[in-house]
Design brief:
Strand order of the largest sheet: 1-2-3-4
Largest sheet: 4 strands, antiparallel
Order of helices and strands: HEEHHHEEHHH
Radius of gyration: 19 Å
Number of strands: 4
Number of domains: 2
Distance between the termini: 36 Å
Helix content: over 70%
Strand content: 5-15%
Amino acid sequence: MTNRIKYLKKILPIFLLVMLDQAIKLYIAKFLMDKKFIIGNILGFKPYLNVKYSWINSMTNMGISLTLHILLVIVLLLCILIIYDFIETKYSMNTYGHSLFAFLIAGAACSLIDKVAWGGSLDYVLLNGFFIFDLKDCYISVFEVMLILSLFKSKEVRNAKGRVLIKGFSDYFKIKYLKKFRKSV
């Protein structure tokens, strides 16, 4: 399989997930912002632009700025991509692993787009009595469930020593990224 096809197989699911999230938000913003309904007193639809930028900021009223949220998401996204690159390079990653990271990367990318383009997150799925969320939050939750399942299933992860993994990642990061950074500066 050529490198271009391998790259497309990795990037296309992420692109499609991000486009789906943003297409839904565009449709809601244009046609459904004033609509609301609840099904069975549990689940509902209630569009809401969360201008506190994150669940943690909303719950704690910490007052973290939009700029800081954007920077945090960019740093987080870069860390996710570096970890993905490390795992893919050092270990054989199957379709499940690629899917796992596709949901996380798509969730982080959607979060960044929300903050930059929407000035917050357009949430619309109401869990009555609890909170309102969107598809991006579902992507991140799917990642979390898949990660937990993979940790229980993987003999390599169960048998791996934490220090060995951290040392391997640290060495990889220094060689691949820090040396390139030092050369460019």
